[in-house]
Amino acid sequence: MHAQPERKWTLEALARIAGMSRSSFAVRFKRTVGEPAMDYLTRWRMIVASDRLANRGMPIAVVAPLVGYESEGAFGAAFKRVMGYSPKQFERAAAG
Hints:
The protein contains six helices and no strands. By secondary structure, it is mostly helical. The longest helix is centred in the middle third of the chain and has 18 residues, at 37-54. 69% of the residues lie in helices and 0% in strands. The protein is elongated and about 45 Å long. Helix 1 crosses helix 2 and helix 3 (37-54) crosses helix 5 (72-83).
């Protein structure tokens, strides 16, 4: 998930890669990492997106699919939910 944040990850796919059942993987991931796998993935995607918006100057329309979102709207909603502000607000603050 770290190397391919754009991939359409599912809990089943992650469990298969780990060689575990879906339920065993979910329990072990949460116990080890401290949050559910899909929440972790969303947070990781927003960290990657933040870097690309702030440090690489990439536009939102380019960043969204690079971190697994098919629309700017879906990306913007997820970004705001995780980061606390919209991607546009983040860009403005980063440009500072």
